[in-house]
Fold MFS transporter.
Amino acid sequence: MASLLGVSLLARTAITADVMALTMYVVLGLDMSYAAAGGVAAALTAGVALGGPLLGRMIDWRGVRAVLLVTVVVQVGFWLSVPILPYGILLGAAFVAGLLMVPAQSVTRQAIAAMTTPGQRRAAFALESVQGELSYIVGPAVVIVGAAKISPDVMAWGVGAAIAAGGAGIALLNPPVRAGDEADAGAAGRPPRREWLGARMIAVLTMALGATTLLSGVDLAIVATLQAAGQVSWAAGVVVVFGVASVAGGLMYGALPRPLPTWLLLGLLGLVTIPAGLAHDWRWLCVAVVGVGLLTAPTLSMVADAVSRLAPAGVRGEATGLQSSAQSAGFALGSPIAGLAIDLSAPAGGFAAAGLAGLAAALTGCLLSRRPPARTPSPPAQRPSTVPPLTPTS
């Protein structure tokens, strides 16, 4: 587990910085507008969102190592060619690269579900969420500094090299994605989607979408608030405070004896986000985002835990891919939603819109998760259900 988390951190830090690397290359390397850079970033993000379930299904079918090696080769080819591609071709290539992005996060989550006992799983997923927060703190910042001080071309190559090295490292470890008692899940055949993609799974995916919509909106609202106060240079400091608070929240939550329901964590996250708009300078904003940060990693870890419990072993890759797609879609939606609220009102409107999006997803998840699971036509004696029960705290 330690080796997997270490190598996965390298890959995830680079993957977190890939959008920033392309943005800096288009703006500084090609001397084009931020709108043009946004087009490349959107193409990459769309590819990641669509490719998650596809790669997950390939992992279920062909195994971890084969999928990782294919995606590593694609990433090497893409990032090596970035500095020589004209803008039009770069758009299409970015979409393909996103479609076949190294599934480091998905594989790590599947391995955690396979390598831990139910009693260990919550703490392990909390640690995985902390890993994600560390990657968000480090990756984009390193790329921005490197692109400004060295070269955007070199940073693009560096990001590609780190993604490839991380993916190759995970392939070398070849972590199990099924526990010992699940080894025959693939041979037994894939259960129909109606057996596992029911109301409870949709509830979890909705909350995954809502959580990242909220976080993306908060990022934009922070920048807008500091720009209105003439303190944009402090944005990086506020984001670091936000990330450190999330790391602390994840560690504390993983050590708690009992978990909280996912919908409750997301609802609390939405509630503490709305009043953050009352802050009007960087000092008060640092204080305001601490509460948001403390609930971020716990919420994301409980989403991952719930997906692992609801997904049968034979389709865990596809289910984890759907979770990654839902979170990618949330990151794509959050900024436009918060941006529209900011344009129509004030920077505080961005925090309000982000918090309300989280509350709406929490309410939807709560209602859907309380629905009884659908019954299968086959009696239990002949065909046991492949969907593990969702505990009340998930």
